[in-house]
Fold:
Amino acid sequence: MGLRTEDSRKLWMMLPIFYFSGIAESLNYTAFMALFNLRFGVQFLPYIYIVEAAIMPLEGWLLAKLANRLPKAKMMTTLYLIMIGLLFLNGAVLLGFKLGGVDYRFYYPILFLTSNFVVRQLTLLLWSTAFDLCPTQQAKRLMPMFIASTTTGGITAGLIAHQLGKLLGTEAVYAMAPVLMVFGFIFFRKALMRYLVPLTLKEDKRLKTQSVPLAQEEKPQAAGYYAKQMLRNPFLLCAVALMTLMPAVYFMMEYQYFTAAEFKFPQEGDLTSFYGLITAIQFTVCLLFQTVSTRLMNWLGASNILLGITILFFGGFGLTALFMNQELGLVMVSGSYAIFYILLYYIAEPCYQLFFKMMPISKRDGYRYFAQGVAASGGILIGSLLSMLHSFGLLQLSPLAWLGVVVAAILVVVAWFGRNLYIRELVKSVQSLHGDLSEIASSFIGGIRSSKALSAILGYLKHPNDYVRELALEIIGKAKDSAFLPHLISMIGEESSRIRIAVLRAMNLQGAGIQELVQVASFLEDEDPEVRAECVKLISKASHLKSQSHFFIRVKLLDSHPKVVHEGVKALYALESEESYPACDEAIIKMLDTGGEWAVYGCHTVADLKLDTYAAWVVSLLDEKRPAVKVAAAHCIGKLQHVEAIPILLGMVPKADQELRKVILQALVDMGQGALPTLREHSHHSNPFIWNAVVSTLAELLEDGQLRTMLVDLCVERLQASTQERALPAALEELGLQGLAELAKERCGELHRALIDGAWAVMAKLVDERIIMTLREAIQDESEELRENGLEVLAEGLGDRKLAYALLDQFKLKDTDAGAVELQPFELLQEAASWADNWLKDIAIYALSALERDDMKEERKFLTMLDKVIFLKQVSLFADLSVDELGLIAGIATEEVHEDLTYLLRRGEANTAMYLIIEGHVELSNETGVGETATIGVLGAKQAVGETTALDGSPSSVTAQAIFDEVRVLSLQGESLSRLVRLYPEIGIGMLHASSARVRLLENMLLKMS
Structure:
């Protein structure tokens, strides 16, 4: 079924909720309908639906009010308990009537309204719970299981009602519903406490502390706005008409079903038994349909599904009208009702959501709720008013069925027009929603070839808007129809490279001739390497013209861009051109040997083709100076599952930057089960960062049972082990080395966080990654109340009680003193000089050397690596980086000394470096409009100059000159600086602030001069 470990845990906790609630909902519905129809009168069903339509807006308003006043988990629990209470109260009244031998006819409308409220809200509550507790991708995997559980509950309820209705009466059937809801509530509450409460900690705090309503950033549009917009939009009008008429037809059929069944079974027990039988059959069909529904949706698409549903509605009413007055009348109307129910509530309702996907996201919910409100009330009213023609005695059931046929025919016409209007609306929305529209189009149109829809798309290939053309090409590409190839070949001369790439992606060369292949191959000489690479990928798919494709592709092994060569090698392997394998080997060797970007693509080629023979060469690239090559090599080693390189990868972790660490972790995971023995050997590694990488990888690879037996105790043991490292900052402070103490404290915090992160990685696999992420944010929040709430969730034994308590102890120790230093400060420094962590060891050695010399600065002309780290930590741009990250920057920073009056930057000249001032002063100046030079400002120690132009090598807008005396600086080259900004966005933000301050200085200077 494609389920994962975390899916299974959640599934077994939530399946009973859906199962017991499914039984309770169906028993409730079956019983109250039988009681109302026989004891009050089925002819009054349209009236009660009209009353219900009037009550529904008030119901929604009250529930919205309740949701705004209660935390989410409490709101959901309260609503569930309210529904149980209503069912218990009604059950007690009904049993009282039966035991007392009394009856009160006008109680049954109240029974209908309250019981139908439970049916309606219980369904919404269950599905909202499922979506709230499951991330989007997990919800996609688990929803079929939840639906199957609910439908199985419906089958069970039908069988119970069929037997119990005859034996004990309808009251007993109704009374069983709240009992079963109580069983569901036990699992419901447990699931909320485990999965939802941690996710809503911040929202719960807001509700508790909120004394006045929060000011809304954007006022919601009034209902009149959406009404006007919908009246102007034919597509939305069709959508609302479809959403209104479909339930109207359903309610007409429901009235036919209940009326015919009451006429056939005048005895209450027999009627309840019949309802139960139909319910069992109905949900059995629904369960069977779920096995093919996903594939059917992907094949047909939502538009064709909705059209098909309307045709089935038309056919169902037609059969009902034809056989209503015959022996098969009840069979036809019961079967049609059962099918209508499944199609409306389990198929059509999800398809409706695609109507609103094209609306701007800020207004999407407004359109959705307004349309659904109009459709819900309108559908009930139309169905009820038409059914009242029979209640008033104006029409018999058979003519009423023919009227249903007419309404269903109108429904088919509306669905057909809505389907054809969809493409036009899709294109209209393209500019604001381009990123999502191809998937929306695929979901709506489906995988089948709709020649009319796709022919209409061809008209948009010449649209002036590139986004529209790109979307049209994506939709054509999804059809995989070679009939469009001539139209696409005609677009070879497009100016935009993005469109040329989209054209290639839309092409299907299956069945193409040699002449067409030659025309497509003209893209191989395109000036843009991305286009050439895409053309190589396309030609490789023309397997029926293997020799010709091989000829065109082999030439591209000599291309000037590594990406084209990369695609060329992959294409020749895809075509199984064995005669070209030696040439491919030469191309791969050239890429790996050239280095830089070529080596990066070489690693990708080896990884994609799983060429194990190059494993040793790729491992050697881990020593490359260029970070991008290291990243590509680590990724490749993971894809090759070269487990012999695991110790090397783990050894790189402590000194790796964020990107490389992430890739190494993924590489270890990619190695799969074969990596487990080696990882187990390193599971007690003394370095916290290596231990973190090992534990995080094992958490990904091990099954649930192995997680608990192997990793939980390992994490608890490591967290509880006392370390002397935390005493080092206090010892340094006592010796008066404040700068080193701060650096040591930062490093100790990093080591501790690495251990905590490893434990959280295990916990995430025992619970849910979203929950752990939210819980970690709450525990680190500035609000003391929110932190306490997060710790309280941890104290409940989340995931695993032992691990939760070990983490809890760590967070409680965080706010306490690190403890007294057992050794004397100088003795501790001597011991620290031999510790495993390189940074703490260097800090200790540095401190000992400082204590041995009176004036360390005079004896050391240039900064050591640790000097640079201490200095960088004091520069605002780098203040938030870790010690390891500061070490990476220090490693690429060059110390320079510039004499007095030396120019670091000149206005109008290209600049390729950023300078961080260690000592001295730098004057910033600019030329005025009259040719004079004016000072903008003077920069001193720990300030930066040239940070903006260094990123792109652009000409400097100011002149920077050393003044008063020599200036010592750290120089960072532009290429290295660009990578830093990409990896650490906070550096870019700091540079932006510095640049803004510089602009303000310039503005002030100009104002003074004017």
Strands lie at 894-898, 903-905, 913-927, 933-939, 944-945, 959-973.
